[in-house]
Specification:
Elements: H1 5-33, H2 61-72, E1 75-80, E2 83-88, H3 91-100, H4 134-147, H5 156-172, H6 177-194, H7 200-214, H8 226-229, H9 237-265, H10 273-279, E3 296-297, E4 302-304, E5 307-309, E6 314-317, H11 319-322, H12 374-386
Parallel strand pairs: 2-6
Antiparallel strand pairs: 1-2, 3-6, 4-5
Helix pairs in contact: 5-6, 5-12, 6-7
Length: 398
């Protein structure tokens, strides 16, 4: 159903009313709950109704957050249309909150721009977004039994072909290394899961559409939830757009499922890497995803260093700043591989038969929400980097 001008006019009017009412109510409730003796969070100046939403850029939002972290400290508060975020740029604070207090810091905020993102009804469509419920606990335990022993799995051969293709592309167009890297990673996962790397062409587009929906700079309905809940779909452009994306994605999944079932019945479907481990009683769930861009949500009121962290506050670890900590990563803008191999560097660890490793780095998330596919990621990086020759730079002659 197409949107007419009258639809849009009515939507705008209702949005203004909802925004004003909901934000005013949220701030009234918060002001009543905050005792005078508690410290006040530092952060950018807030405007009525919108908070600091007007200061948050749509693109490269992490750079703006890093700038604020230098101004307001390693943990600061922002208010986006009545929704509170605590942005954490210090690894020690992130560990204290999301690791040591993981019992109440492991939930996910509901992404209202997606249907049932927390899987409250058991849909389990978006594993990294699932709330801390019985469905999340079940699938995580199911996957954990595989990934704790993933270094013994014989999947490296499946990576080699795509790495060779990536290296050839890199030689031809080194300036496009970023897009080639994404293409390589997605093709490897599609090869492992479906025995068909070409699925990555559609899935890569679908993933970027999903990431846009769930990002801090995504649709306004992520922070102003009544726009999603109470506007009828006929005049709700956000729900209308997501319905199309969601239904198209589900149709693609169902088509692939039916195709694989028919091939299996005819004996034409080669045994997949996943099925080999399912048959050997080593459960596997495709759990390699971008897990760190999603905020944690506090499940009940908590206190930290004299500050109140109210229930429902979203904790956003700023990995862009954490990995630039000069105390842990001195000369971080320079190439110094010895930082991992020589005593005296803050990042040096022993034994060298186990370290250095990317497993456990902050980029894989925190606490009970860490990515379970870290070993696969490391193996993929080793195969990709090991295929290169670091003797001389690529020089183009015109």
């Amino acid at each position: 159903m197409a949107f007419t001008s009258s639809n849009w006019n009515l939507t705008v009017v209702l949005c203004i009313i909802l925004i004003s009412s909901v934000v005013a109510y949220r701030r009234f409730i918060r002001s009543k709950k905050l005792p005078a003796e508690l410290k006040r969070w530092l952060g950018p100046v807030l405007l009525p109704i919108i908070g600091c939403a007007h200061l948050v850029p749509v693109n490269y939002v992490w750079k703006k957050f890093e700038q604020w972290s230098k101004e307001y400290g390693p943990i600061f508060k922002i208010d986006l249309l009545g929704t509170d975020f605590l942005v954490v740029s210090d690894e020690r604070i992130a560990e204290e909150l999301m690791v040591k207090r993981a019992k109440i810091y492991s939930d996910r905020p509901e992404m209202k721009s997606l249907f049932d993102s927390k899987s409250s009804t058991g849909t389990m469509e978006y594993l990294p977004l699932m709330g801390r419920n019985e469905f999340w606990s079940r699938q995580r335990k199911f996957a954990y039994s595989f990934y704790t022993d993933s270094s013994n799995h014989n999947y490296l051969g499946s990576m080699e072909y795509e790495v060779k293709r990536w290296l050839n592309n890199l030689i031809d167009e080194p300036e496009s290394w970023s897009s080639f890297l994404v293409d390589m990673a997605s093709k490897i996962m599609c090869q492992l899961a479906w025995d068909d790397p070409e699925h990555s062409e559609y899935l890569a587009k679908s993933v970027w559409g999903l990431l846009t929906k769930m990002s801090p700079g995504g649709p306004i309905t992520n922070v102003l939830t009544p726009l999603w809940d109470y506007l009828p779909e006929t005049i709700n452009p956000w729900k209308y757009t997501e319905r199309r994306r969601h239904d198209e994605q589900n149709a693609w999944w169902m088509l692939e499922y039916l195709t694989a079932r028919q091939q299996n019945e005819r004996g034409q479907l080669r045994q997949s890497w996943v099925k080999k481990f399912l048959d050997s009683e080593k459960p596997f769930v495709a759990y390699v995803f971008y897990n760190t861009g999603v905020a944690h949500e506090v499940e009940k009121d908590d206190y930290w260093n004299g500050y109140l962290i109210p229930k429902g506050t979203r904790i956003l670890p700023l990995d862009f700043a954490i990995l630039k900590d000069k105390k842990k990563y001195p000369k971080g803008e320079e190439f110094h591989p010895e930082r991992w191999l020589e005593p005296g560097w803050p990042t040096f660890k022993e034994p060298l038969t186990k370290h250095p490793t990317v497993v456990g780095m902050s980029s894989f998330g925190w606490g009970r929400r860490t990515c379970l596919g870290q070993q696969i990621t490391q193996d993929e990086l080793l195969v990709a980097c090991g295929g290169q020759r670091f003797q001389r730079p690529v020089v183009r002659y015109v």
